[in-house]
Amino acid sequence: MLNLVLFGPPGAGKGTQSAKIIEKYNLLHISTGDLFRKHLSEGTALGQLAQKYMDNGNLVPDEVVIGMVGDKIKSTQGVAGIVFDGFPRTVAQAEALDVLLNDMKTPISGMVSLEVPDEELKTRLMERGKTSGRVDDQDAAKIDNRIQVYYKETLPVASFYEKQDKLAAVKGVGSIEEIFGSICGAIEKLN
């Protein structure tokens, strides 16, 4: 199986590129945001547990998030692999994901990290805010904060995979097709 972590800061193009990767390689898309919404709307045991944390203003613990991811993987058959989009966000989540996938005998193949300069990220997010209506993409201070949180809390995940020789950095600037070509080149090297 081809199991990829698609990685990068907010506005790097993960959503755009993950759709193209899924189509080309027949991969299952796992987004923790989508999983949260699904479990909450269906009132599952994991959703109810997550809701308790959220109702108290707390982050949902990694073990609950990993439980949702594991549940999704186990319920899916016939895919050539998985693309993880926006997950893992912390080293603890990456470690837990490795344990889960290794137990299932289908480890992470690699991480593709989209690298985009901060000024380009800010421009993209402001543009997306105009077209999507997302409030967090329309405020320069919130955008700056999201980028800083990425560097502080999420970027260390890249080092985690780099130590396993599973990190492929891809320039995330250019046309969508040029970037996708670079991503495909990185994926081919993983196989």
Would you mind describing this structure in some detail?
By secondary structure, the chain is an alpha/beta fold. The protein has nine helices and five strands, in the order βαβαααβαβαααβα. The mean pLDDT is 91.
CATH class: Alpha Beta
Strand-residue fraction?
A: 5-15%
Q: Total strand count, please?
A: 5
Total DSSP helices? 9
Task: Give the gist of this structure.
The protein is α/β, with parallel strands linked by helices and 191 residues long. The protein is built from 9 helices and 5 strands.
Fill in the keyword field for this structure.
191 residues, alpha/beta, Rossmann fold, 5 strands
Fold blueprint:
Blueprint: E1 2-7, H1 14-25, E2 28-31, H2 32-42, H3 45-55, H4 62-74, E3 81-85, H5 91-103, E4 110-115, H6 118-132, H7 140-154, H8 156-163, E5 167-171, H9 176-190
Parallel strand pairs: 1-3, 1-4, 2-3, 4-5
